[in-house]
Write a structure and sequence with these properties.
Helix content: over 70%
Number of domains: 2
Number of helices: 10
CATH class of the largest domain: Mainly Alpha
CATH superfamily of the largest domain: Tetracycline Repressor, domain 2
Shape: elongated
Distance between the termini: 59 Å
Structural class: mainly alpha
CATH architecture of the largest domain: Orthogonal Bundle
Number of strands: 0
Length: 210
Amino acid sequence: MTGPNRTTTRHADSYERTHTRIIEATLESITREGLSATTIQKIADEAGVSTATIIKHFETKENVLQAALDCIAREFEEERAQTLAESEGDPVKYLTLTAKMVLHPKISNVSRIAVWNAFWGEAQARKLYLERIGAIDAEYERTVVRMCRQIARDGDYQEINVEAVAICFVGLLEWLWQEKLAAGDSFNVKRAQGLTRGHLANSFPKHFRR
């Protein structure tokens, strides 16, 4: 590799690291301040860069916020796709892995949960949330419903409302996210895992043990 090429590569790597640091700083600022109170200056202070650097990377505050939302959406979608692939079409394995995935520290850390809530909770940001995340949420929900229906057919569970079971499973995981946001480091992961397992065992006792 020639000298100029090495220099170009170093500059590209440095740019990407700074870009990522700004996004992470934005997530932290939203967690502490909320969307409205998050400013370019606060993001710059958190990231340890100048406001000019943020403007160079993103141009506007709105673009930084959108990049932060896209970042956590991409993380969730990648993990969801991996979970679906690892389950190999086995619905019991899929639901078990999904519960573990959603409660995993990478996905359910406080800053990520706070950002989800911030975008959903502020009316002006909700439209952006639905545009960027709505399709991901809908596909995730459809997959859970489909897996629950497959278990219901396989186990001849004729007396249950399968869609209700599936939506309650999704809702339980979201509620546990809220609990983790409030509890922070004291959040009891084992209890959370037990609750999700208990819901599945109550609904599909032939397939899940308590």
